[in-house]
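quick one before i forget lol
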Amino acid sequence: MSNDATNKIITEIVAEYQRAISKFPTFHSDREGFDILDEEVQELKQAIRHGTPEQARAEAIQVAAMALRLVRRSPSPVRGSGTMPYESALIDHATTNGRNRPDFISHRPRHSAQDSIS
């Protein structure tokens, strides 16, 4: 997957994350966050089984955004502040279209074609 494709996906995940928190600012508990994430995973499962590739991709973006919300809600072992260590770098990456890309994105292992959704 090219950096441009990765940048586009990250941008979509962050946009969905921001849309979700503007609509529902917080999870009231980890359990609520898990239940919402599980609901999104079930919708992804249905889209993969019965929907189009576009529907499955959209649901996968929502799963990633809800997972980011759940991770962000949990205290970070690094900072203890409720933010994940690379959260600001991820959002900065998405909002700068990949300029000044953090190392954790550029050095990830490559995945096989079987791992892609589209």
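fyi Confidence is low (pLDDT under 50) at residues 76-86, 100-118.
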